[in-house]
Each structure stands twice: as C-alpha cells, then as structure tokens.
Specification:
The complex is a heterodimer of chains A (254) and B (283).
Chain A: H1 2-17, H2 19-39, E1 44-45, E2 51-52, H3 53-84, H4 86-91, H5 97-127, H6 136-158, H7 164-181, H8 193-199, H9 203-215, H10 226-246
Antiparallel strand pairs in A: 1-2
Chain B: E1 6-15, E2 18-28, E3 33-37, H1 44-51, E4 59-64, H2 74-78, E5 80-83, H3 95-103, H4 112-118, H5 134-146, E6 152-156, H6 164-180, E7 183-188, H7 191-197, E8 200-205, E9 208-213, E10 226-232, E11 235-241, H8 244-258, E12 263-268, H9 272-282
Helix pairs in contact in B: 3-4, 3-5, 5-6
Classes of the chains: A mainly alpha (254), B alpha/beta (283).
C-alpha cells in the first residue's frame, strides 16, 4: 500500500506538470461549463418539471470531467507510457506491476474529486446553482463508482490503441458523439427519443443520469440511482475483465 | 572458480517459423563485463530479454543468479538492473525525482546523490528528463537501473545512435561500474565498444555464437586472407592470399623482370573489424 502511495505521489507531479493533461482534464471542462452556462444561461430545460439550464449543465459537465479524468486520461497516459517503454521498464523492477496501474487510478480519482469541487463552486458562485451539501456522501459515492468503472474501461481501451498518435483520435471518436447523444452537451429534452434510447446502450448516459439525479433532484431521500449505477458498474467489470485479458505492457516494437 | 552469474546451455527461441536463437552456450563470471556483439537481427536482444525474464525461451537451460528468470520473483528482481534498448523516461520528472521514484521500488536502494555522481549528472539533478540530451537521458536510464544496488546489470545497446562525445561519456560511466563489482552484460553492434569495455565478448550471428573470448584474441586472425593491392596501368588490382610472403615475392619478382611500376603497393593484414565482419557474414 505504501508503494501505491509512493507511485501516486510521482504520478501527481507528472500529471500537474503536463500541460496537455491539465488542459484537457481540468481547463477544458471548466471552459465548457462557462460557455454553455453563459450562452444558454437564461433558458430553462424541460426536465423534471423544468429547471434552469445552468442547473442542468453543472452535473452534465461534472459527468464529462469524471470520464475525462478517468477513461480519457488513463487511456492516453497508459498508451504513452507503454509505447515509451516505461511500462516494460517498470516490470523489470521488484515493483508489482499492478502498483503502477493503482497509482494512476488513484491519480484519476483524486482529480475527479478536485473537479467536482471546482465545477460545483463555479456553478454556485457564478450561476447560483445550489450545492446539495446534504447529499454530498451520495454524490461522492456516485462519482467514485463512475470513476472506478471508467478507469477500467480506459485501461481496457488501451489494448485497442496501437500507437501514441492513435490515442487521442480513438478516445475522442468514442467519447465525443456519446457526450452529444447522452445529453451532456445538448439538454435531453431537445434530443429525439430514439437518440436517447440509443445512448442508453452505453454507460455514459447511465452515469449522467445517476449524477444528475443525485445532484439536482433529491427524489427519494439519498438520491442514489442504484439502477443506473449498477449498469455503470457492470460496464466497469466488463472493462476490467477485458483489461486483465488484453492489456499489454510492452510497446508494439518489442 | 566461483559459480557463474549467468549460465546458458542450448538456449533456443523461435517466433513461429523464425529461429531467432539457435542453441547458445555461455557463462558469465562474477564481476566481469561481458559483451554480446553482433549485427542487427543476430538475436542479441532476444537473448538478453530471456535472461531478464521478459521472454520465454523455446528450449535449453538458463540460470541467472541461480534462478530461472522465467519463474523468478521480486527478490531476484532486487538483485538485477535493466536498461532497455529503447525507453523514454517520464519527461515531467527531474533526474532526482526519476531516481527517487525507482528507489522506492527497492528494499535497500543506493543513495540518490551517489547514483547521480556515478552517472555524471551532478549538474543536472534538478533538470527534467525532457531537458536532457540523448546521452544524458541514457545515463539517467543507467542510473535508474543502478539505484537498487544490483549485482548484475543488463545494458541493451547502451550507445546506439550517440555522437562520439556522448559515446565516450557513456563508456566512462560503464567502465566505472567495474569498480563497483557489478557484473555487466551488454549488447552492442560496435566492435570498438566491445573491445573498449568488455573483458569477454561473444559474437552472435543469426542466433548462434560464432566466436567468443577476450576481445584481443577473438576469432582466428591468422586464418583470414591478407590483401595485396596496387595499381597497374591505371587499373586497381586487389589480391587476397593466405600466403602473403610467397605472393609478394612472385609479384615483385615479375614486376622487376618486366620493368613494371606497382603504384600504391599495399599489404593489409585483417584487423578486428574484418574478423568481426567475416564471422558475421559467413555464418
């Protein structure tokens, strides 16, 4: 365990010094929230009996930032480390290989929670979107389940990415359309029902619904969406199994 | 004689129909610098990566520090250091941090400042890997392999692609390891590198050892032909002979008889580079 902490400390350093990871994981969601909230700020969304657009976009962009800090960031950074030969090099030391992965997952989860705080604060300060303090444990639990699941999916995805150059296109080609179709970018009252049904086949939509319900409308007490979270968790387990089976440590050329 | 650090008997490795290593026998003794020399594709990296535990062999017996690398665990890894043929270091960590990261993997690491001095990066301790030259990155790579205080160090083509001054610095670092008592196995396709660094060399060609021994006694230089060259009437003539004395006697005798001038007459004995080339070509 102390070895995981050791690895995590260095992963944190490398993460915050890497302009690409800081921009895409931290700055990009913030910019998206500011743009969406500013452009559509005075409208309402016909969801749950009508809510303000800003209240819609805070959980939407939190959803995006979790996926970006986990699946996207892990898939990219692991492929880069693999093709650089760093994963293979690490395997030549006494460190158990899973420690390397655990350090990265820890990094992703910490960044996820930082993004939750940052986006919730921006929503509250700039747009008056209340922070549901009473449901904070449920929110954190939802994000941790999602973060774990999308970490597994990101690790599994590395097996399908042949090179460093292919990492960004493949990850974005998968995620960007699903953000649109799942209602993350476009409020789902404006999406045709067929689109939403299609998006329901993928984990992003379910994770978004879980985050949205726990953040916006309390409904039944804790606001935890067990059914949606269960589907996200099943995707995560599937990703884990694929990762265990297909993950590669060595670069393509050796 | 003490037990060898590495002992290889009849090592074979095939990838599908391709036989990359075809029956190698080698021993590496404690404290020696041992070079596997050969052209690209000779099976050097395959052999070394089998010794490092990265690859499974197809046949034969291998013992490294008394264990079979295929089944060796954490404690065995504590005792070896590895520098891969190509590995880019984390560009966002400094020299000191990269060494600190790896130091955490070992139960009794060497002090970081000591390793920085060993690889000659004193002035660069706080520089990020991305700010180092190729040669400096390679020396940091060697430092990361030394941080666990290994008994045995593998260096796979440590200077390939270096300019002459970076090569010389890398050589000094590697030569300095001898004083630490570390056993070193290095691969290279440079004859001069093997000659300069190694106590013993094995020349590999197409998966087989074609010669081995101390670099100065490598191969059978006397059995290679001597080359006699000269120009006659503007034309370049080159003769290879295993009996140079008689050949020169006959040649110069004839030239004197007929009053011919042999311009640029030269007699060349094979050097080590020729030995290496002839061994790796004919195999």
């Amino acid at each position: 365990m102390s070895l995981v902490l050791h690895q995590f400390r260095y992963d944190q350093k490398a993460f915050w010094r890497n302009p690409a990871s800081v921009f895409f994981t931290v700055m990009f969601p913030v910019i998206l929230l500011l743009i969406f909230a500013t452009v559509f700020g005075d409208q309402t969304v016909d969801v749950r009996g009508g809510i303000e657009t800003t209240a819609y976009y805070v959980p939407a962009i939190i959803t995006l930032s979790v996926i970006s800090a986990t699946m996207q960031s892990l898939a990219m950074s692991l492929v880069i480390a693999r093709e650089d030969g760093r994963l293979k090099r690490g395997r030549g030391t006494p460190m158990p290989p899973w420690v390397f992965i655990a350090g990265r997952i820890g990094n992703s989860i910490v960044v996820t929670l930082i993004m939750l705080a940052l986006l919730a604060a921006i929503g509250r300060l700039f747009y008056g979107v209340p922070i549901p303090w009473e449901r904070l444990p449920a929110i954190v639990a939802t994000l941790v389940v999602g973060a774990a699941a999308f970490c597994c999916l990101g690790i599994a995805l590395t097996a399908a990415i042949p090179s460093q150059d292919a990492a960004a296109p493949i990850v974005n080609a998968l995620l960007l359309p699903l953000y649109f179709l799942s209602g993350v970018f476009i409020p789902d009252d404006q999406l045709p029902s067929g689109v939403v049904q299609f998006a329901d086949a993928f984990p992003i939509r379910h994770f978004f619904e879980a985050v949205f319900d726990v953040y916006v409308s309390a409904g039944d007490g804790a606001g935890l969406q067990w059914d949606n979270l269960a589907i996200v968790a099943i995707w995560g387990v599937a990703g884990l199994l694929l990762a265990v089976r297909f993950f590669r440590w060595a670069p393509r050329s050796g | 004689m003490p037990d060898p650090v590495i002992s290889i008997r009849g090592l074979r490795k095939s990838y599908g129909a391709l036989d990359a290593v075809r029956g190698i026998d080698l021993d590496v003794q404690p404290g020696e610098v041992f070079a596997l020399l050969g052209p690209n594709g000779a099976g050097k990296t395959t052999t070394v990566e089998i010794l490092e535990g990265y690859r499974k062999r197809s046949g034969g017996e291998v013992s490294v520090l008394g264990e079979d690398p295929q089944h060796a665990g954490r404690e065995w890894r504590e005792r070896i250091g590895i520098v891969l043929q190509s590995c880019r270091l984390d560009p966002y960590l400094t020299v000191r941090e990269s060494l600190g990261l790896f130091a955490g993997y070992y139960s009794s690491p060497r002090p970081i400042d000591e390793v920085i001095a060993l690889v000659g990066l004193e002035g660069k301790a706080e520089a990020r890997a991305s700010e180092l030259s190729g040669g400096q990155q390679r020396r940091l790579d060697v430092g990361m392999a030394l941080i666990g205080d290994p008994e045995l160090l593998f260096l796979d083509e440590p200077t390939t692609g270096f300019d002459p001054s970076a090569r010389r610095q890398a050589w000094e670092t590697i030569a300095g390891l001898r004083d630490l008592g570390v056993t070193v196995v290095l691969t290279t396709h440079y004859m001069d590198e093997a000659q300069r660094l190694a106590d013993r060399v094995a020349i590999l060609s197409r998966g087989e050892v074609v010669a081995s021994g101390a670099p100065e006694g490598l191969g059978d230089r006397d059995s290679l032909p001597t080359t006699i060259s000269y120009r006659l009437g503007g034309e370049e003539v080159c003769v290879e002979t295993s009996n140079p004395v008689a050949a020169i006697h006959e040649l110069t005798g004839r030239a004197l008889e007929q009053g011919l001038e042999l311009e640029g007459l030269e007699v060349k004995r094979p050097n080590l580079e020729d030995v290496y080339l002839s061994l790796t070509e004919q195999a």
